[in-house]
Amino acid sequence: MQKRQEKRTGKNREFLVIMYLFLFLFLALIAYFVYFQVYKSEKFINSPYNSLQDLFSEHVIRGDILSADGEVLATTKTGKDGTETRSYPKGRTFAHVVGYDVNGKAGLENQENFSLLRSHEFFLKQIGENLAGKKNMGDTVVTTLDSRIQQLAYEGLGSFDGAVIVMEPETGKILAMVSKPDYDPNRVKRDWESLTADGSTVLYNRATQGKYAPGSVFKIFTTLEYFRENPKAYENYSYDCSGEISVDGQTIHCAGNKRHGQETLQSSFSNSCNSSFANLSLSLNRTEFKQTCDGLLFNKNLPIAFESSKSSFTLSDKDNKAMAMETGIGQGKTLVSPLHMAMIASAIDNDGILMRPYLVSHVQNDSGVQVTGNTPQEYGRLMTEKETALLQKYMRAVVTEGTAAKLSGQSYEAAGKTGTAQVSDTSDTTNAWFVGYAKKNGYQDIAVAVVVEKSGAGSTYAVPIAKKIFDVYFNR
Questions:
Q1: Buried (b) or exposed (e) across 272-298, using 16+ Cβ within 10 A?
Q2: Using one digit for the tens of pLDDT, what is the confidence trace for 220-253?
Q3: DSSP state string for 300-364
Q4: What is the pTM of this model?
Q5: What values do phi and psi take at 450, rounded to 5?
Q6: Of 451, 455, 416, 452, which is closest to residue 436 (Cα–Cα)?
Q7: Are 420 and 258 in contact (CB under 8 A)?
Q8: What pLDDT is attached to residue 52?
Q9: Spatial distance between the Cα atoms of 349 and 296, rounded to a whole number of angstroms
């Protein structure tokens, strides 16, 4: 009798273990289902590889994309026969940032695909449309883009290839994003073969995906590293510039072989003295230099919900002195994107704090009622207030007494760094850079990054574009 009871007890225990195991698995499945619905479902549905999105387009007319000032950037036109055609009223000016919706998707058309294919119209209206066999109107995406600033940036590049980014340091709002060469988004389907031909980079968004040698704008990072390694002695830095420096068979020239004479750290920065920066770069701890650059977003994904490339920085003890000098002046193996440099300028203006850049202000239904919205979010502190105070001072000196003098004497206060970067070691062709910010009472500060491909000096080709943007923004 006792043995039978023991057997029953054992079987009961096994049954309970199995029952609790299945209960745990059931609860875990429920928990994941809730988690998926709350946190993951929209991301999954919004994937461009998800064919479920086609089902939404069968019942919803794709919504509009608007600029912050109400200009229509993308809309859907419906013909008498019900045929839907995506239209881009601003054409080439917003091509890369807005993107396209045929033969795949790009830009905001891709990023906000799910929002554009959802409808939050009044539910009784939706029911009525459905009963009548009609489609509901999709939601409208309202961007942070300022159509006037975008137009200025686009016109500023003129016939040159390159990129311009404009953003608010305090909020992270992107006001303009331009990339050239451009394309007509209204003709993507017709021009697809030429747009995607071997060697074509027309569809490539240089503003966020471009990877350029930074040239002298990289001296921002070199200066910061020198300050971090010499917090008490940096003011004593002195160098006698003869127009060039030669070490181990490598010669670095200043622009035009100009002899700057006796230089401090600040004047080396404002005059963009290559010889001086090549010299001080030899003294830097390479491990610490890389740590500084990694902490300033090199070699990592940028914090933005948009297609972008990683900037790259490498310098090790295995590299020779020539590479150390080249790296310190923004050549060597270092590559950056304009977006990255605009974020660095923003962080410097914002006392070291980087706000996450974003392109979408909010989503609203067809009647203008807001459905969702984005608010400024802090990414983190990249530099201390003392470090940013130094860089702010030096970047201001670039305007008041250095290579960006064209920005001095304005109604606003500008600061920045120019750059002239060799395209390759085998060519004298250069890309022009300007990275900086400006401020004026009563206005939000704005930061810019400009790169003009195969043009010339940053002071000649990039600074005027920034100036045009600052002039209009701070005088309206």
A1: bbbbbbbbbbeebebeebbebbeebbb
A2: 999 999 999 999 999 999 999 999 999 988 899 9
A3: S--SSSS----BB----TTS-HHHHHHHHTT-TT-BB-HHHHHHHHHHHHTTTEEEPPBSEEEEE
A4: 0.88
A5: -130, 130
A6: 416
A7: no
A8: 61
A9: 15
